[in-house]
Amino acid sequence: MTRVAHSRFLVWMISILVAYWSVGLITPYPDYFNGAVSGFLLVVSGLVFAQWGTDAARMVFDAVRGRKQISRGDQLSLVGVALLATGAFYQATFALAWVIWGQPPGWLNTACSAFGRFTLAIGFMLMFISPLKAPAGKSERLSWWALGPIFLLAIALAFVLGSQWGRMQQESSIDLARLYAGR
């Protein structure tokens, strides 16, 4: 318990989360808050992509051209990080554009609005299936059998939620705009 209590990183993380939720829940301008968070995500994901994206592209192209022998784990992990940064950057760009252009409802639930989340999912999947390095230096391989049921469960859950969504009444759902407006 002493280690946890004295961890500066843990204190910073908790402080950042408390500040986010404190400001996010009481702000009278949720559009500006959403824009600020998207702007922050845009900057951070751009910096991560600038740091890791060129290395990932170079690694993939060198491997395709046969110049270097690259381990599968390094390739999957590095491309996964680059895709996470790309997906987050796209998601932030889309969210900022959506707010700037007056939040058009036609932009929601489209392939364009889902592309960032799709890219994030692929990046996470690559990170998930990349071989893990054990402390003893042995490579642990993750079985596709571990990923398959999770993927099928996510598809089934999306199908059930999608089939139920049409039956929901707008009045019975939570309207965050009414919460912010105090109605």
Give a written overview of the molecule.
A two-stranded antiparallel ribbon has the order 1-2. The chain has helices at residues 2-5, 8-26, 30-65, 72-100, 111-129, 144-165, 176-181; strands at residues 132-133, 139-140. A hairpin with a 5-residue loop joins strand 1 and strand 2 (139-140). Helix 3 packs antiparallel against helix 4 (72-100). The chain has one domain. The longest helix has 36 residues, at 30-65. It is 74% helix and 2% strand. The model is unreliable at 169-174 (pLDDT under 50). The protein is mainly α and 183 residues long.
Strand and helix map with partners:
Elements: H1 2-5, H2 8-26, H3 30-65, H4 72-100, H5 111-129, E1 132-133, E2 139-140, H6 144-165, H7 176-181
Antiparallel strand pairs: 1-2
Provide the helix percentage: over 70%
Query: What is the SS-derived class?
Result: mainly alpha
What's the helix count? Answer: 7
Beta content: under 5%
Biggest β-sheet strands, sense, barrel? 2 strands, antiparallel
Described by its quaternary structure, the protein is: single chain
Q: Into how many domains do the coordinates divide?
A: 1
Shape: globular
Features:
183 residues, mainly alpha, two-stranded antiparallel sheet, 2 strands, 74% helix, globular
Task: Report a brief summary of the structure.
Helices cover 74% and strands 2% of the residues. By secondary structure, the protein is mostly helical. The chain has a two-stranded antiparallel ribbon.
